[in-house]
Amino acid sequence: QVQLVESGGGLSQAGGSLRLSCAASGNTFSRNLMGWSRQGPEKQRDLVASITNGGTTTYADSVKGRFTISRDNDKNTVYLEMNSLKPDDTGVYYCNYLNYANWRSYWGQGTQVTVSS
User: Fold this and answer.
1) Are the CB atoms for 116 and 18 separated by under 8 Å?
2) Using an 8 Å Cβ cutoff, are 21 and 78 in contact?
3) Residue 41's pLDDT is what?
4) Which of 96, 95, 108, 93 is nearest to 18 (CA)?
5) pLDDT of residue 27
6) Residue pair 114/18 in contact by the 8 Å Cβ criterion
7) What region does 110 belong to: left with phi over 0, alpha with psi -120 to 50, or beta?
8) Cα 17 from Cα 97, distance rounded (Å)
9) How many CB atoms lie within 10 A of CB 106?
10) 3-state SS string for the chain
11) C-alpha pair distances (Å), 26 with each of 93, 98, 99, 117
């Protein structure tokens, strides 16, 4: 099992910034993918950004140029720096960990991000 503990999030005005963190512990593996997905009100959960242990990143088109994902492999922690926030960024943000050793996926409990106009 892998446990994910998320922190950060909260309330921001449009144009503001927030930073999310997610620390993985337990049966982690050196080769993995970590990322963030979000679920807005009455919307499905969609990928926001992901990063491999080697540093390869992927972003949803809606956040390119505004959000930056990074990680600290020594700490098994992934970060999401969110700038120029928009009301459409509102939602619950979930951390995800994919273990390449056995292809098992784990999810955090979610953290709320609310952006007011």
Assistant:
1) no
2) yes
3) 86
4) 93
5) 84
6) no
7) left
8) 24
9) 19
10) CEEEEEEECEEEECCCCEEEEEEEEECCCCCEEEEEEEECCCCCEEEEEEEECCCCEEECHHHCCCEEEEEEHHHCEEEEEECCCCHHHCEEEEEEEEECCCCEEEECCCEEEEEEC
11) 21, 13, 12, 40
Radius of gyration of the chain from Cα atoms? 14
28 pLDDT exceeds 90? Answer: no
Residue 29 has pLDDT above 90, yes or no: no
Provide the CA 111 distance to its chain's centre, in angstroms: 10
Query: Do 94 and 38 contact (CB within 8 A), yes or no?
Result: yes
Amino acid at 40: G
- State both tokens at 93: 């943000």
Total count of residues recorded for the chain: 117
